[in-house]
Amino acid sequence: MTSAITQQTPAQAQPGLYGGKSSRRITVRDIAAAKRRGEKWPMLTAYDAMTASVFDEAGIPVILVGDSMGNAHLGYESTVPVTLEQVTMLSAAVVRGTRRAMVVGDLPFGSYQEGAVQALRSATHLVKEAGVGAVKLEGGERSADQIRLLVDSGIPVMAHVGLTPQSVNAYGGHPVQGRGEEAAQQLLRDAKAVQDAGAFAVVLELVTAELASEVRRSLHIPTVGIGSGADCDAQVLVWTDMAGMTDWPGGRTPRFVKQYGQLRQALGDAARAFADDVVGGAYPAEEHSFH
Ligand code: KIV
Description:
This protein has about 290 residues and is an alpha/beta fold.
């Protein structure tokens, strides 16, 4: 499929999932229909209204207000400190900035691990206060009860298995998941468990390409890959990684990230040009002044 981001109009970019004359938002039914058609789709994160509006206009059908906001937007070292109020506030901004995309709000660490009732309370808050169309939470078998109650209560859930960044302290890093027979079998059980609990899609993060392919073939809900090879139904990237905005420690971009722009360089150049003009007296010029 041609990159949605480089196209002129959303309809050209996404003739299936995003295209047509409709101006309504993408729903879980559209996602299921795309899966039946065998159509791949892109997902990006966003954390503010203006960036989200750019992605919406570019034809990105699903926008995730990820707890990756911890690293990518709020200056933390991981997703762990992110709070439900932060996700709610930024999700509301992303909903306001979009017309077509399904906006998925991420349940942050500590907002659903206690059990299904806590998960329902947190997800209800996010849906009512921010207006998101779905929520995402991490975990396979261990989160099945939470997913089931949310779905039974009318809240669509995107699940997230493989590497689950909220457990970074338990992993002690970001290891590739599913290597070895036992780990592979557990991942397959996790993916099956979230599907059985009613999730409408499942993120596979940092899973070997072979295993991700096997998971996709064993499920009827779409798999959304990140660092999990090409054989997924959808692909997601953190927008700052995708656009070349992230300042990677030591300049080492992870292998799975492809940069489709050099925004960090472009924004720095703009800021330096502005500073030079102010210091040199070239800005504001006559045309920027009122009389
Ligand atoms: O928080 C996030 O942005 C995510 C994606 C990387 C899937 O969970």
